Amino acid sequence: MISNNPTRCAACRFLRRRCPQDCVLAPYFPSSNPERFACVHKIFGAGNITKMLEQLPVHLREAAADSMFYEASLRVEDPVYGCVRIISQLQHHILEAQSEILKTNGQIASYIAQQQLQQQQQNVVDGASYQQDMQISEYLGVGSDVQTLANDSYFHP
Amino acid sequence: MGSGSSPCASCKLLRRRCAKDCIFAPYFPSDDPHKFAIVHKVFGASNVSKMLQELPIHQRGDAVSSLVYEANARMRDPVYGCVGAISFLQNQVSELQMQLAVAQAETLCFQMQQDPVALPTQIDQHQHHHQHQDHDQKSLLLSNSDFNSIPHQYFSSFASPSNVIQDPLKRESLWT
């Protein structure tokens, strides 16, 4: 004798059949949530759901039932595109973000180039200024020699 | 189109006469039997027929394309189907959002270095600019809750599908 579930699962209740103890759908379509099964059945059909779940190891069936419910809900909301609309929009957003990142990186590169140019220009100015100082020192007869002489006189009074 | 001489892929698979007004015929030509086979396997012919009948004719082509896409995804990944792809793409978007935020912070630093005197004005302008473009930024940065995560009410226990699906759909663009 086949023992039945004391409370039929949502699937068996919807399909108006006995709910056996080993009902494939019962763990994932509890009687407390009839809309869940109704939605999945509308899009995939009870037979297909059962077949798909049966082909999976038990530990993966819950995730499969959940993902089917998600897809079915989106298809009910949007009968033309279903969840594919979200995929399309995500792909579009990825392209936009990539383009924005490229643009921003370009700006950064431009800033860095500007900075380097400014640095180079500053180096040129500093170099010219240094040479000018050296020329003045030589003209006046002071310069690095002074320090050497000073050192000499210090050590050789 | 359905005709007596050449049944469409659907009627061929279902072994029935292909009527002149066959609802499947425009979308499942006989030269591509795999297309209907996969949709039938996942959704079932009668469900597909019902779905198409409820749509205006000009939308049926796109509906069939999206159903084929979903069915292919489900065949490639029997556990997560399209949801795996959505999760993968959401992760990609999050990563790109972070990269973009970092890059934008860097440009702000450069701007501050270049013109620190005008800093308060710049910040005001920056904020104003962002407020003005708030909608666009939102759509770009996906603060829209539709995309940030798959809503929890759909899942009793949902392991990350991105670990499962590596490649199948990430490079496919739609309708090309």
Topology as H/E string of chain A?
Answer: HHHHHH
Radius of gyration of chain A: 40 Å
Q: Give the overall shape of chain A, derived from the CA principal axes.
A: rod-shaped
Quaternary state of this entry equals: heterodimer
User: Per DSSP, what share of the residues of chain B sits in E-state strands of 2 or more residues?
Assistant: under 5%
The helix-and-strand class of chain B reads mainly alpha
Class computed from helices, strands and strand pairing of chain A: mainly alpha
Low-confidence stretches of chain A: 146-157
Please give the share of residues in helix of chain A.
Answer: over 70%
How many domains of chain A, as an integer?
A: 2
Helix content estimate of chain B: 55-70%
Q: What general outline of chain B do the C-alpha atoms trace?
A: elongated
Binned strand content of chain A: under 5%
By DSSP (H or I, 4+ residues per run), the number of helices of chain A equals: 6
Distance between the termini of chain A: 123 Å
State mean pLDDT of chain A (0 to 100 scale): 87
How many strand segments of chain B?
Answer: 0
**Annotation, overall tally of beta strands of chain A:** 0
What does this structure look like?
- The complex is a heterodimer of chains A (157) and B (176).
- In chain A, 73% of the residues lie in helices and 0% in strands.
- Chain A contains six helices and no strands.
- Chain A is rod-shaped.
- The longest helix of chain B has 33 residues.
- The interface between A and B is large, with 50 and 59 residues.
